[in-house]
């Protein structure tokens, strides 16, 4: 658990190898898959891996800390006692060693290394684990831990029990960015994808949700994420409410969506099942089949965030229809946003914690695209909300502040700037079709992606050089110095000449195109003009001449559609920051 912005190394390594010794004579009793007696076997190694693990252990093996990647977590959790048992499968990188280091809590018990007792120390949030030397292959690290009933970061992250709005107890084990080690040993770096199984023991008849393919018994529910890999931030999740009942909202080729809600719940009634089904068809046409299978579970719960995107398993806040309607339809917007995260955040995930903006920006942008094309009465309100959040943002999307911004404050700050700067503002500059093509490339391969990767994908799709755009709009420290647009107009010889000047405190000139609306005396007297500063502006001032309208221009509005981040007042006058939602 760190939740700090640090460049992630390519693979987990906390110490370098200290020495090399010869280990002889252990032969085939060392590695998992090599015949450990009395231990439930982990998934079989491939023949190649097995050969390496079993034969090279008899040769040179380094003592010291080895590097590894975690391929799978098997996590068992008792909902009543909070007792967890964890099995972590590590792929050992050659030349191996006899120790590894992994984030984990103090207080784990019964640690074993391929079935034999392991030596474990804990300091500064890291477990040092030592056992039988291993050249390559796998280490199967098992341990037990009692998860505290506690939450962190002024959020619901952790394990909590709280009443829903009619008093039923909602239990939630909620991981997050760099937080899976709250629940046991876990490599919590963002750029890790793994497979998982969750086995939850619970009181008889209680409904329990967890990510992936789910099978439920009377006192045990099991979920498997054994196909498409998933990141730790969203995968560690167990949610339960004893009075949830299931409603099948959608059953189509795109998805089978079951909604879990208490009988008094508000969300199923607030959703139009046909609209949800139509959206699921649309988004799977845009991004491909749901990455974690056709089954999608959505539940209503007393959460602080509006929604959370566990793989194949979405949790929505129970009072969405009652909240201030910053989005025209809070319930539908949030549901769509979390569905987009199945691709953007889950299947394709963050290279580093500071890449958080792209996943929120993509979830918002695709939700907006759907609204604009299918629910166009809702889209303008989404843009107005983004614009308000962006104008009053506290940080750039790639903040250079020293010290770095508080991470929670930073990620709460990106819901307007992200979709506007990364996507919406690029539409008039490179074309919406190119923006979408770039996104599809960016999301096409399972793995980890950075904001730079997004720029490269957009550049490849458009042929444009976006370096100056990204540098100007995304990089900076302190409160963003967004432009104010001063507009004057003059009429002569049947032409109306608009002069548009960008004003900033630092005199930086932003690559952009800005819409100007001219208005006359009558409501019908309106004309929209786009003034293009281009991706490589040479001046803070651009003039544009058009055929003068037949009516007299009385008023000029800058960015009437809320499509460009800009100040509404010049100089140091600042609009008050508005409270925003996290979803
Ligand atoms: Zn989100």
What does this structure look like?
With 583 residues, the protein is α+β, with helices and mostly antiparallel strands. The protein has four domains: 19-146, Immunoglobulin-like; 244-318 and 331-342, 2-Layer Sandwich (Zincin-like); 349-476, Neutral Protease Domain 2 (Neutral Protease, domain 2, Orthogonal Bundle); 484-558. It has 13 helices and 33 strands. The strands form nine sheets. The chain has an eight-stranded mixed β-sheet with strand order 7-6-10-4-3-14-17-16. Strands 11-12-13-18-15 form a five-stranded antiparallel β-sheet, with no helix packed on it. The chain has a five-stranded mixed β-sheet with strand order 19-20-21-23-22, with helices on one face. α6 (356-374) packs across α9. The model is unreliable at 4-58 (pLDDT under 50). It binds zinc ion. Zinc ion binds next to α6. Residues 337, 341, 360, 363, 583 line the site of zinc ion.
Identify the notable features of this structure and list them briefly.
583 residues; alpha+beta; Immunoglobulin-like; Zincin-like; Neutral Protease, domain 2; 4 domains; 8-stranded mixed β-sheet; 13 helices; 33 strands; binds zinc ion
Strand ordering within the main sheet = 7-6-10-4-3-14-17-16
List the ligand species: zinc ion
Q: Evaluate the radius of gyration.
A: 27 Å
Mean of residue pLDDT?
Answer: 91
Q: Domains counted in the coordinates: how many?
A: 4
Main sheet makeup: 8 strands, mixed
Low-confidence stretches: 4-58
- What is the percent of helical residues? 10-25%
Strand fraction? 25-35%
Shape verdict = globular
Number of helices: 13
- Indicate the CATH class of the largest domain: Mainly Beta
